[in-house]
């Protein structure tokens, strides 16, 4: 059985005012899992009420809700979540080349600012649709959240270099076969970041680390290099509600995980950028208080 921890000691140092969690999923009642994706998360439904407790605990002010794989191409749950969270939230939806302009209008009006590409098992729309989704997103000023096995990034590099949208490489790049900080895969990410439209997301470190907790040294070594190379291109997310966890024993402590991952940033200025300035630019949030 899984019981999520929703409160505790806050992370140190405290998160700055205006912090944006750029990677999480939320599930409201009445939306069952659909064929093709995973089931709903274990334990009590991780809904808006649960997540607000986490925001208060960690010091998060704003959030990007990403369409979960459980709901595949049906964004209905996501739209209810955005309505529940109000002005503090933006959304990343699933679309494809057949999505109509009327539907894109509806999604934009609800707070959707991006589209998800998930080229891994259970993903609803993968790299086969990358160019079609990019064209729709670019026309709207949306961003893309792109996730695949980063160990194959060199295979995809020409296509990624042609993207017209702002986009973020998700989940620490998910280098499932490992990546050396001075290897060709990381060099490719640096080149993409240098082009000015690519961000790199610190989230879900446990999904690709081979050495695991508490330090995740393999992922950390790459994260530190990329954060030092382009601190203006790093964003962060909790990856709440940690859908891979099936029991309470598997469930990470969010404060400790936050401290560990943010500790890979080079200094306080980079931390401010990753938590506030960079996600404002990528996801189109107004400055806090504006």
Give an overview of the whole structure:
The chain has 290 residues and is an alpha/beta fold. It contains nine helices and eight strands. The protein has an eight-stranded parallel beta sheet with strand order 1-2-3-4-5-6-7-8. Helix 4 links the parallel strand 4 (112-118) and strand 5 (143-147). It starts with 19 loop residues before the first strand and ends in a 7-residue tail after the last helix.
Short structural summary:
By secondary structure, the chain is α/β, with parallel strands linked by helices. The protein has helices at residues 48-58, 76-85, 101-109, 130-140, 153-161, 184-194, 217-229, 254-262, 268-283; strands at residues 20-24, 62-66, 89-93, 112-118, 143-147, 166-169, 198-202, 234-236.
């Amino acid at each position: 059985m899984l019981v999520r921890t929703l409160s505790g000691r806050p992370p140190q140092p405290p998160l700055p005012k205006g912090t944006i969690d750029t990677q999480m999923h939320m599930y409201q009642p009445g939306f069952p899992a659909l064929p093709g994706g995973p089931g709903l998360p274990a334990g009590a439904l991780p809904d808006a009420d649960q997540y607000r407790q986490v925001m208060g605990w960690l010091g998060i002010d704003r959030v990007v809700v990403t369409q979960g794989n459980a709901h595949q191409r049906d964004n209905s749950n996501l739209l209810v979540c955005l309505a529940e969270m109000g002005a503090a939230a933006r959304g990343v939806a699933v679309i494809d080349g057949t999505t109509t302009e009327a539907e894109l209008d509806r999604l934009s009006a609800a707070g959707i600012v991006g589209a998800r590409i998930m080229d891994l098992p259970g993903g609803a729309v993968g790299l086969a649709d990358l160019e079609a989704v990019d064209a729709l997103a670019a026309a709207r000023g949306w961003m893309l959240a792109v996730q695949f096995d980063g160990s194959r990034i060199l295979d995809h590099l020409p296509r990624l270099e042609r993207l017209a949208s702002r986009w973020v490489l998700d989940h620490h790049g998910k280098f499932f076969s490992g990546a050396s900080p001075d290897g060709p895969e990381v060099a490719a990410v640096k080149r993409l970041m240098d082009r000015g439209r690519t961000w790199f997301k610190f989230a879900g470190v446990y999904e690709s680390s081979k050495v695991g907790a508490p330090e995740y040294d393999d992922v950390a070594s790459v994260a530190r290099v990329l954060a030092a190379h382009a601190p203006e291109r790093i964003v962060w997310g909790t990856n709440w509600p940690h859908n891979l966890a099936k029991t309470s024993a598997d469930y990470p402590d969010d404060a400790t995980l936050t401290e560990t991952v943010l500790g890979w940033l080079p200094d306080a200025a980079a931390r401010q950028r990753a938590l506030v300035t960079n996600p404002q630019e990528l996801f189109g949030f107004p400055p806090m208080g504006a």
